[in-house]
Amino acid sequence: MQKLIFGNWKMNLSAADAVTLAQAASKLSIDAGLLRVAVFPSFTALAGVSASLKGSSVALGAQDCFWENTGAFTGEVSPTQLKELNCTHVLVGHSERRQSMNETDEMVNRKLRSALSAGLTPVMCVGETDNDRRSGQWSNVIARQVAKGLADVKVSGNQEIVIAYEPVWAIGSGRACVPENAREAHALVRNAVIELFAPAVAQKNFRIIYGGSVDEKNIASYLALEGIDGALVGGASQRAASFAGLIEAVQK
Ligand code: 13P
Predict the structure, then answer these.
(1) Which is nearest to 77 in space by CA: 105, 28, 111, 40?
(2) pTM score
(3) Contact yes or no for 79/86 (Cβ under 8 A)
(4) What is the CA radius of gyration of the chain?
(5) Which is the closest atom of ligand 1 to the Cα of 164?
(6) What distance in angstroms lies between residue 129's CA and the mean position of ligand 1's atoms?
(7) CATH number of the domain that residue 183 is part of
(8) Which residue of 45, 67, 104, 132 pairs with 41 in a disulfide if CB–CB is 3.0 to 4.6 A?
(9) CA distance 36 to 34
(10) What's phi and psi for 60, nearest 5 deg?
């Protein structure tokens, strides 16, 4: 099955630098049967990056969206506005938003449902903090985030939902999760999805990927594991050389 490599550029790169990086990404040789590559620049860079990716096999995503499509919501960006710029994917509930912007599971759920009905693939991020892991609560936290994030979600046809397991302590820390522990967490996420949807739907319409200090050296060790469908990469996706290294490491 096709593996996913998603690059979250976070609030980094000027619009011009994002276009330069997207142009480099668009020239990479990607076996689209094996890999789906998508990049998630800042809103300000979406239009430029969208133009640079035209005709390439790299897809475009945004880092967040609002749950309404139009209206008096100053500063928000809607799923339909993202579609206009050829976005096909959108992150929801990244831990940086849950922590700094106080996004709740309920808000994440509204964003996910809205993205899905607009025809975008939502990439819902879940994951425990260091404290959750130390206190033995990590599995409950993940199961809760999955269950609440997917509440009242209906999936049909080829609609797709990606869940990114990103332990908060592994993000940007250089402390990547031990692959076996990531595999265990992925199985837990998969089971939480199966609690809500028929097993066939969980299998066909859901992909589960790992994020947190993934780089070109360790990416293959995650993607080799049963149940890990790809990676959501921050830092290593933000430089042309390491981005190319990620793709190369996986296609080897
Ligand atoms: P890093 O790869 O920089 O740890 O970031 C992971 C992440 O938050 C991706 O969404």
Answers:
(1) 111
(2) 0.98
(3) no
(4) 17
(5) 10
(6) 14
(7) 3.20.20.70
(8) 45
(9) 7
(10) -115, 140
Ligand 1 pocket, residue 211 CB under 6 Å: yes
Number of domains in the chain: 1
DSSP 8-state symbol, 177: P
* Residue 134 and residue 146 in contact, taking contact as beta carbons nearer than 8 Å: no
Q: One of 103, 166, 186, 216 is an active-site residue; which one?
A: 166
Q: How far is residue 212's CA from residue 233's CA, in Å, rounded to a whole number?
A: 7
Instruction: Write out the residue range of the structural domain in which residue 131 sits.
Output: 3-251
Beta carbon of 213 within 6 Å of any ligand 1 atom: yes
pLDDT tens-place string over residues 48-104: 999 999 999 999 999 999 999 999 999 999 999 999 999 999 999 999 999 999 999
In tens, the pLDDT along 197-224 reads 989 999 999 999 999 999 999 999 999 9
Does the CB atom of residue 7 touch ligand 1 within 6 A?
no
